[in-house]
Amino acid sequence: MKSLKTLIRMHKRELDRLRREVALIESKRDDLIGAVQRMQDELLHELATADELGEMRGFFGNFSDAIKRRQKEVAVRIVKLEQQIQEQQIEIQSRFAEMKKFEIAYERHLLREAQAKAKKEQQQLDEVGLRKFANNV
Q: Which pTM does this prediction carry?
C-alpha cells in the first residue's frame, strides 16, 4: 500500500502548490485594492487643492477623469483576480476531496492489517494455551 501513501503525498504537495498560488493571487488583489484606495485619496487631495487654488480647477476635470478611468481598469483586474481565486478554491476543494478518499482508503488498509495481525497473535496465544492445557491434563 505504499502506492496510496505516495498518492497522498503527491496530493498534499499539489494542494500546497495550489494554496500558494491562491495566496499569491490574493496578494495581487489586495495590492490592487490598495492602489484603488490610494487613487481615491489622491483624487480627494487634488479636489481639496483645486478648491484652494482657483487656477487649478481647469485641470482638475481631466485629472479626475483619468483617475476614475484608472480605477475602473483596476476594478476590472480585481474582478478577474477574484474569479481566478474562486476557480482555484474550487480546484483545491476537488483535490482535497480526492486526497481524503486516498487517506481514508489507506487508514482502512492499516486498520485491516492491524486487525489481521491481532487475530494472528490471538490464534498463536490460543494455540499456546491449548498446548499447555493439553500437557497438564
A: 0.72
